[in-house]
From TrEMBL:
Keywords: Cell membrane, Membrane, Transmembrane, Transmembrane helix. This is FtsX-like permease family protein. Residues 556-577 are annotated as: Disordered. Its main location: membrane. It holds the Pfam family FtsX. Residues 261-380, 724-835 form the ABC3 transporter permease C-terminal domain.
Amino acid sequence: MIRIAARTLRHHMSGFIVSFVALFLGAVIVIGSGGLLETGIHNAAPPHRLAAAPIVVTGDQRYKYTQKDLVFPERLRIDAELTEKIAKVPGVAAAVQDMSFPAALVKGGKVTGHGWSSARLSPYQLTDGTAPTEDGQIVLGKALADRTGLTTGERIQLLVHGTQKGYQVSGLAAGPDDGGDDESDVFLADAEAARVADRVGTTDNIGVFPASGANTQEVASAIRAVLDGSPVTVLTGDTRGRAEDPDVVADGSDLIPLAAAFGGLSAMVTVFVVAGTLGLSIQQRQREMALLRTIGSTPGQLRRLILGETLFLAVVATGLATIPGPRFGRWLLDAFADAGVVPGSIAYRAGSVPVIVGVGTALLTAIGSAYIAAQAAARTRPIEALAEATLQRRWFSAFRLIVGLLCMAGGAALAWGTAGSAGPDAAGVATPAAMVWAAAFGLLGPVVVRAMVAVLRRPVGMVSGLAGQLAAHNARARTARLASAVMPVMLASGLAVGLIYMQTTQSEGAERAFDENLRADAVVTSASGGLPLDLVDTVRRQPGVAAASAQIPTTGYIEPDEPMRPGEGEDAGPQPTELSMQGVTPQGLDRTTAYHAASGSLTALSGDSVALPATYAKDRKLGDLVPMRLGDGTQVKLKLVATVEGRRGYETALVPASVLVGHTDGALVPQIMVTASAGTDRARLVASLAKLAALQPGLRVSDTDALKAAQAEADDTQAWMAYLVLGVVVGYATLSLINTQVLATTERRKEFMLQRLIGATRCQVLQMMAVEASLVALAGMVLGLLVAGATLVPLSMSVLGTALPGGSPWILVVVLAAAAALTLTTTLLAAGAVLRGRPGDMAGIKD
């Protein structure tokens, strides 16, 4: 039977090609997403700026002793005195402090400042001039000098930490690869860098150089022992890049759920597509199977024939998929990094596991689908085989009904969970819900298709005449075949509508939350990365200003009342509550934002105090001390002075800016919100505030349209990621749609030629196929809309409070029109290609 299976491949080439493409692309997608998942688990970040130091000591960004992993969003700086302590560890040749801070050249744009000691860690080497040994001297990275045209001896103005100071370029330095990866490095003397950046006594990292002949790992272990109890981590190898970019720790872990969601979605689509394609391919050969049964083939031989064909095809397809699969995963990582979804310093790290999983998924799906089809063929008695092939009486099974109903129940449970989720989190539940609903309607598809055919039979016949009646009869007699053709239409249209509107709904929810909270007319920012807090009072006193308030966004945590103790690992101890936090100045807060007190008073936000969202303060009363952690891990106890309302999922805790400003990366105010007084328009307000540039170098003033544009840009980043996933998954389903329609049409060559022999014209056959394709498209779009509707209604209720999703109705029109056009076009093109032959050739009649 195995030899027969191999020989049959060339006699059913179209079916095998379609199945091969489905298996190959499905395996590529699953292998690539699996590689992305493994990359997230490794979270490797090879160093660049710190590459010369074999060991790097940096702050530990992890929130310890919690049930689930939490990472502080602001950099944890370490005590500079640890440098001497590390230098005394046996095997250490030198310990070098590293510090970075945002700055800007008045004529040259944003730069990154460092102490000169940091140059040793890349290493940077002087190519011209001397090192900065005195105050007022600066060394420029050669790439920056080339870009700006600056040379040794010139004077420049540097904006840093809200001040402006003049420097003389004492030298130029080039790093690895002619300037390294950063084209904006500048270096000051160590003492001056710490002073101007307000970092005296702290440092970002400590680079360690082991002594000649010392083992790096042994030295690292010795350093860990000496620093035990300090809030630091010792990094070697590929993990050193986490010290350069703490976002690798904070955001790199996001790659795991992102890859898992994408991989799970892709795997489920692969299962549906491969199962449907193989099932249809084998279904088209029912007459051949029936003949084999009538001439004496046993059920076991028939099963081995089908399984042998499928195994041969699957092994070749998945084997070839192992070549582009990892490259596809690397491309996905680069695309996510370019969009800012994950840090760009994360390196692609994937071994054999994703390949094994991807190949295994495709093989198991193929073998499982073939086995189910083979069982159906093998159970048929020889005397009924030909009748079964002709009439297709078994169009549905009890097992399929039970599994379909179970999937319906699962989809309903996920819909309930989606509706009950907070707005920003609802999509995480809605995405798997879409696939469960797709599985449910796919399994129950024959019932829906049969009902639709029964309803549409007479109208179709009346509108399209004999061709329509014949198409309706074909659909009724071949319900299972029609349902197999409907599945990819449902997947493509349902997932496209569901995923696109899912993203537009999330974006509209975020936009509404932003707009509802915005009351200011102008925003004040700085080219140097931030503004001093006392500038808020200066802005408030300007002509035409009615109110001004600082805004310092970050993330904080409400600590549980039960203390967290060492030794309580994941899933063991209490879990802090993570929430958005905004540092504000209470004067003018009610006129620059929409925050209002549900209880207490926002004017009481002074000193160590907090206004919590009402949903987070249910078990507390005004005056209670709330144990919290700020974004850099600092423990504080803040007095509850008010509660505030907010859109569900977008709630924010308010803290005095004076409490928060020293615990962020910039240690400055990113923006000051300003409201104009009565009779002052926005243009006059902006012009009035612009005069402050003489007092505050680098100050920038714009209207709130700039804030809205920044918010829209952030939404576009998330949308781009969603559309990338959509493009891959729906693109695969769309390709399956095309392949399936081609397969379902070309395999009916004998039927078409028989119709031609009994007098049907080529045009009549094409008319019949056009009606059948319309039925397939209609059934697929109806099922797709059911999938999308069951997914989007609870999502929209959670995010927008309405049953209708956000987004243009033209999205729906375009998706459905594309699905109908693809189905009709591929069917007619395939039928036209088949009908090019002469009817007599198929019947064996020669001229």
